[in-house]
Amino acid sequence: MASLPSLMPMFPDQCKGGDSEEKSLSLFVTEDGDAALWMCFRGKCGWRGSTRAFADSQSLSGSLKPITKVKIQREITVENLQLEPLCDQIIGYFAERLISRETLQRNSVMQKSYAGDQLVIAFTYWKHGKLVSCKYRDSNKKFWQEANTEKIFYGLDDIKDKSDIIIVEGEMDKLAMEEAGFRNCVSVPDGAPAVVSTKELPPEEKDIKYQYLWNCKEYLQKASRIVLATDGDTAGQALAEELARRLGRERCWRVKWPKKNKVDHCKDANEVLMFLGADVLKEVIDNAELFPIRGLFNFKNYFEEIDAYYNRTYGYEFGLPTGWRALNEFYNVVPGELTIVTGVPNSGKSEWIDALLCNLNETAGWKFALCSMENRVREHARKLLEKHIKKPFFDASYGGSAERMTVEELQQGKKWLSDTFHLIRCEDDSLPSIKWVLDLAKAAVLRHGVRGLVIDPYNELDHQRPASQTETEYVSQMLTKVKRFAQHHSCHVWFVAHPRQLHHWVGGPPNMYDISGSAHFINKCDNGIVIHRNRDPAAGPVDQVQVCVRKVRNKVAGTIGDAFLLYNRVTGEFMDIDEPSGKR
Ligand SMILES: Nc1ncnc2c1ncn2[C@@H]1O[C@H](COP(=O)(O)OP(=O)(O)OP(=O)(O)O)[C@@H](O)[C@H]1O
Q1: 189 within ligand 1 shell (Cβ under 6 A)
Q2: Residue 270 belongs to what H/E stretch?
């Protein structure tokens, strides 16, 4: 039969106590000596296992039948641990931290002689009135815990049947809470993790670092409000997060530690007690706020934003004016919104958007990402340069008698083009997907600070969809992606979509519901605009363009209505009707 000394060399301490060389390996051998069970209590290690010894073979590792229900805790008492009542010196140490003799007594804080001449503080851990563990603290703030004892919360019996409880990160904080009138408080037994784990929650029996939580499950079941008053540092906040993950975020609250001077915040309950007093500590707990749950918010989470909106400190609250007086009344460009632009072929949709971008750049310095699949780069450059320089690019018949832009103007214009626009283009034959476009647009926002994205036109994108998905569902999902992009990056998106073939078209502007594909275009967009021009000289001037604002979701930025602009064929500029060419 194997005995304990003969077993020991078989169980090397895997982690060797880590940096602190803390002795944390617990080994239990059953009374008959037939089986052994071991566990390392260091959170980062957690090595555990079990084995049986067989008298005939003397083998420990030959047969590894799992051992279940083997008790590993020692029986401990105040007497067998040789704990003593606190001496005046240690009571004085606590008094400096504003922890009273009464609080120490009620929590059975004791002392123990250690290594001959040293006195250490003994924080006793009780469960159902029975001593189950003890944690020591020496004068150098070094902690260690009685080996082979159950890990539980400090002060556990104080939260029995309580619906409202507080969890802190150290015994001193638990005692400090009592000075502020809170007995319904427990401390975790062994500190905080460095960071929040990115892994899924392990099953209970494998959740070594948080074994104390599971050991105290019955005490926590009735709690409907759990205030996580862990330390304000990163580790303390990581601990709060890990506790909330296990306890259920919906019943957790968190505290904001107040400032202890002009610069620094208190880091824990004991510091608040020492620097600001018991009343402030009470206030901190009374003012605890709900632990955030991803996706669940309250308006008060946005009060700063609402105030800034009210005071118009964000800028562009009413949208950026378009540059045309006739249109500003109806449409202004709000960052983060989606404008769908439609119109029959050749109505001037692309031209009008280009002219708008030029205006926005001129008035507010906005930069743009252009995903204009139909345009050749050099032709698009020509159209933009003509609008910017207000002269024709070529000496050609469309320019009439107007002077062509000079080489110097072209040079200056090229610099403006490079500074203002970023091109999203699919260099090979394949059609770009919306995801591809939005990923590049995101890069343009982050890298170049673009404020607007033009996707012109929609039907030049790859719209393959699973057989099970209808076109309506597809359009809805695609527009949701576009809107999310716009909102997340405060980037305005102009999306050009063609109307379906209009069989009985009599020359009037099409309807937003005529957009081929889906009614979602009008449903989902923030702004819907139809660009239309008269082609019948008998019906009115042919250079007149009708900008029909058919939908404006944000009443602060505009309203439904039609604006009329004049198109200059020579420079591609759009002007207010009473405005001379070249002026805005
Ligand atoms: N009001 C107008 N009067 C005369 N010509 C115009 C007018 N508006 C645009 N054009 C001309 O019509 C042509 C097409 O313009 P543009 O590419 O902007 O139209 P579109 O609506 O985007 O067309 P498509 O749907 O085919 O892409 C251009 O040559 C442009 O100069």
Answers
A1: no
A2: helix 269-276
Average pLDDT value over all residues in the chain? 88
106 pLDDT tier (thresholds 50, 70, 90): very high
Residue nearest to atom 10 of ligand 1 (CA): 348
Distance CA 216, CA 214 (A): 5
What is the residue with the minimal CA distance to atom 30 of ligand 1?
Answer: 348
- Residue type present at position 232: G
Helix (H, G, I), strand (E, B) or coil at 248: coil
Res. 297 pLDDT band, cuts 50 70 90: confident
- Classify the C-alpha dihedral 544-504-375-530 as positive or negative: positive
Whether the pLDDT of residue 9 is over 70: the answer is: no
Residues 6+ apart with CB under 8 A from 550: 511, 512, 522, 528, 529, 530, 560
Q: CA 393, CA 371: separation in Å to the nearest integer?
A: 22
pLDDT digits (tens, 9 = 90+) for 555-572: 999 999 999 999 999 999
Residue 577 Cα to chain centre, angstroms: 49
Distance 485 CA to ligand 1 centre (A): 28
Residue whose entry in the numeric block shows the structure tokens 């394949």: 430
DSSP assignment string, 147-167: TT-----BTGGGGTT-SEEEE
Q: Is 170 helix (H, G, I), strand (E, B) or coil?
A: coil
The pLDDT tens digits for 360-396 are 999 999 999 999 988 899 999 999 999 999 999 999 9
- Give the distance from CA 375 to its chain's centroid: 38
Q: Whose CA is nearest to atom 2 of ligand 1?
A: 543
User: DSSP letter string over 371-411?
Assistant: EETTS-HHHHHHHHHHHHHTS-SSSSGGGTTPPPPPHHHHH
Going by alpha carbons, the residue nearest to atom 6 of ligand 1 is: 348
What is the helix (H) or strand (E) element at residue 174, kind and residue range?
Answer: helix 171-179
| Region class of 525: left (phi > 0), else alpha (psi between -120 and 50), else beta | beta
Residues linked to residue 564 through DSSP beta bridges, in sequence order: 546
Query: Is there an atom of ligand 1 within 6 Å of 576 CB?
Result: no
Q: Is residue 173 in contact with ligand 1, taking CB distance under 6 Å?
A: no
Distance of alpha carbon 211 from alpha carbon 177, whole angstroms = 24
